[in-house]
Amino acid sequence: MKGPFLAALVLFAITAAIVVYKVYALDYHMAMIDEEPGHYVRLVMTMTSKSPDSPINVHVTLPLEDERQTIRKEIYREEGFVHDIEWEDGNRIANFRGENLKGEQSITYSFRAQTSSMKFNLPEATIIPATSPSNLKRWLETEEYIESDDPAILAKSEELMKGDRRIKHAVTVFYDFVSSGVAYKPYKGKTSAVTALKLREASCNGKNRLLVALCRSQGIPARVAGGLVLSKKKREEAITKKTTHSWTEIYINGQWVPFCPTNGYFAEIPAHYLELYKGDRAFIIRTKNIDFDYRWKVSERRSSEEEVLYTNATNYFNILRLWATLEQASISLNLLVIILTIPIGATVVAFARNVIGLVPFGTFMPALIAVAFRDTGLAWGVILFTITILSCGLFWPLLEKAGILHVPRMAIILTLEVMIIVGIALVAINFGYKRAAAISLFPLAVLTLTTERFVISIIEEGWSPTLQRFAVSLLVATAAYLVMRWTFLENLIIAYPELLLSVIGVNLLLGSWTGLRLTEFIRFRSLYLRGPNEMSGQET
Amino acid sequence: MSHPWKEILGLNARNRRFVYPSNDRHTIRIANDKLMARARLEQVGIPMPILLGRVVTLFEIKSTLARISNWENGVVVKPNWGSGGRGILFLTSDGNGGFVGGRKGTMTSCEVDRHLRTVLSGEYSLRSGMDKVVIEDRVRSHPDILALNEDGAPDIRVLCVGGNPLLAMARVPTRRSCGKANLHQGAIGVGLDMQSGQGLTATWKNRFIDRHPDTGLPIKDLRIPHWEEVLKIAKATCAAVPLGYAGVDIMVDREKGPLVLEINARPGLAIQLANSCPLRPLLEVEKHPLNGVSA
After folding, report:
1. How far apart (Å, rounded) are the C-alpha atoms in residues A194 and A484?
2. Closest partner residue to A535 among B4, B13, B208, by Cβ?
3. Beta partners for A251?
4. Class of domain A118-270 as given by CATH
5. Taking the model in full, what pTM does it have?
């Protein structure tokens, strides 16, 4: 009696051990579906001190929150360091400080970001204001690399404006000039606004500085802003990058309006720009006496189920790199998910039978039916199954009268069934219900198997028990479907395939359980509710 | 007096603690095979209905049809590996090549032929592949056993545990069951006193009754004739086909007395309802080698 329990416990323990190891020791995270799309972002900084006696200081600008950007769940891993946060120039800066550190150190800062795009409408007639609020003086000043008081800049801005002092006009002509009139050339060094103007080519930083300089020269507050570009490319592993991107923000009519002359965004900012800092600065500043490197790791959490599934499946720590390996044999991710969730569906069926007492056709037919429902969806699946099988059942009396032998009789039923399916598909497509026409091999096979059992049951037991059993089959199939298609579970099993060991454990427990089934409670209720002294009287 | 629900034996417990540990595979196979079981039982002289014939190949169908046409009494056609009454046909020759019986009431020789072929094809078989057909003489029930209902043919199910009869119930047909002694199809299950064979309580559609639903006769009117003989052959059957947890189906013929029909390796649980007696206390009290440990 004890054997299965112990075995189950061992299996649960092994699963737990593997999962715990992955999560805590290997820092493995399962990607999750969110209601809204978002990103899980990590900044990993590694450094080795060249003079262990002097302290290490690292200053990192942290992402800000505004109407289009939400930052949640900030986590710091900073062994050996302490940090405090201060505000400077509109930036939120984390100052990490560590002393007496030998060897390689690392600081990890991670957060969840949700960004959306934003577009701005610029006022048509507003003139550039003569004065600006005092808190914006900072963004009108000339800087080392943004030489807004340089005569060349001033001259160019006048030339572009042609006397029209409307702010929208000014910003438009400056932007057009910087984006089209100045070529993009990635530089490693720092290009100032004047240099960009002279050479008519610059990196994105240079372009921004020029745009900012032009604006400031005309009394329009402007600044550089920068951050991470979250890739729009679909099928990629956790993106690792180093380079950040910058753009321009111009103060118009009480708002900071974004512009990106490099990538062509005028008065708008796309969802995949994650803002990290404002002003012309590097987002990391650190003490000089260290070997320093950093990396961004971004993993997408899109609301698309496929994306999340993909992320989980391709994570490096996924055991045996399961899908990464299988993909080489052209096994699609969808197929792998089905394969991994079938044991779960089977467990649902086992539970339905042994605990609830629902007995469907076939042993695991409902689990297969549940898989067949994936193409059509639950509602259409049930409808189609029912229509097709009942129609075949209705043909049955005719065939019975014909008095022919069993197996060819079944072949006729199946032929009729195929005709019905194709007919339904044609009708459905004509009425625009494309999903109802999702016929593929596997559902067809399951359908024909179920029909065979259905018809045999009519022969052996009659219509009434058959219909009951069919309803039970659909009920259990629905339950299996809902469990197997529970997105959280799909991701869980793809991220932790070792959970299959626990599925074995669960079934060991289920198979050891000798309690009464729910249907038995109902069936034997007269035994435990009232004794034979209270009779129901003669029934006719 | 009602019983705590924990005492009721459910399928999970029956299978795990009694059927699987007490019944070994090989013996179950014999029990499921009507012809093999019959061979065992006849070897030790246990009375059974006359075997009129068997059909193993298609070629034998014709001669078998001839034989049952000439048999004056009724016959029962059974699949060798069938269970639960599926595929069973009660027929009586009408003397003109046709038969009385079947779902419609009459059957032509052709229809019977087809049924035989269907059984042979394995449609009602527990196993895959071809089946055999068993043809037996129809038992004519003892009048005492028809005390509750003149129509139909009742049988007795004796639950034997560790080779000893533990509980018994009589399955009496009703109009609703179309003359069949099948509880799921509407027959009543009458719990029997193990000493006397007298009807005590009964169940119909999972409820207690004290009268037959069609005739209104009280359950206590039923008293199984030759009761000691019934118990004796039940016990002998379990010795010949050694199953530790089994149901022996017996009918009482008006001339020949109790006859064994078959032995079941997975007897159902309705016997608890028929006797208004949950099984667990009975199974656990007697310190059977079955209890929790394999026999």
Report:
1. 62
2. B208
3. A256
4. alpha beta
5. 0.65
